[in-house]
Amino acid sequence: MKKQKPWLGFSLALLATMTWGSLPVIAQQALKAVNAPTLVWVRFLVASLVLFVLLGLTGKLPRPSEFSRQTLFLLVLGIIGISANFVLVALGLHYISPTTTQVLWQLSPFTMILVGVGVFKEAFTHWQKIGLMLLLTGLVMFFNDKFGELFSLGSYAVGVMMAASGSMIWVCYGVAQKLLSKHFNSQQILLMIYFCSSFVFLPFAEPLQ
Predict the structure, then answer these.
(1) Is this model's pTM higher than 0.85 or not?
(2) DSSP state letter for 96
(3) Sign of the torsion formed by the C-alpha atoms of 185, 188, 194 and 199
(4) Which end of the chain is least crowded, N or C, by CB within 10 Å?
C-alpha cells in the first residue's frame, strides 16, 4: 500500500481551492478585453496543449484502441457539461460579482451528490443531509437583500440563473469523468475533453482579441 502524505494532499487541495477561488476575479477583468467564447476557447486551448506536452513526454497519451462507443458517448457528455459550465459562468460574470459566482458554485458538489445517490446508488449520509440544509440556508441568507432584484427578473437575476445553471450542468462533466476513469486516467480525460471543447468554441472565438 502506498504511504499516504496527508500534508502534501492538503497543500495541493488548498492550492487548487485558492486558484479556483481567484478565477472569477481574474476572468471578470479579462472579459473587459475579450468576449466570453474567446476567453473560454483560450482556457481550453492552453490547458489541452499543456496536458498534451506533459502526457507526450511521459508516453501516456490515449491510444485509439482504448476508445469505444461508450467512451465516445461519455466524452461528448463531458464536453457538453464542461463547455456549458465555462461559458455560462463567464457570461454570468457580466451581471454578477465573482463572490456571487463562487457562492453559486457550491451547487455543483451537492448536485453531484444527489446524482450519485440517484444514478450510482451511493449512500446519502447524515452529514451530507446536514450539509445540504446548511447550503440552502446559506443561499437564503446570502441573497436575503437581493430577493427584490431576483424576482424582478432583471440583469442580476439573469446572471444568477446563468451561474447557477452553469454550476449544475457541470455535473454532466462530473458523471462522464467518473465513468471514463474506468478506461483512462484523469489527465487523459482532461486532455480529450479540453482539446475537443477548444474546437467547439473555435467558430465563436475571436483570436485577434
Answers:
(1) no
(2) S
(3) negative
(4) N
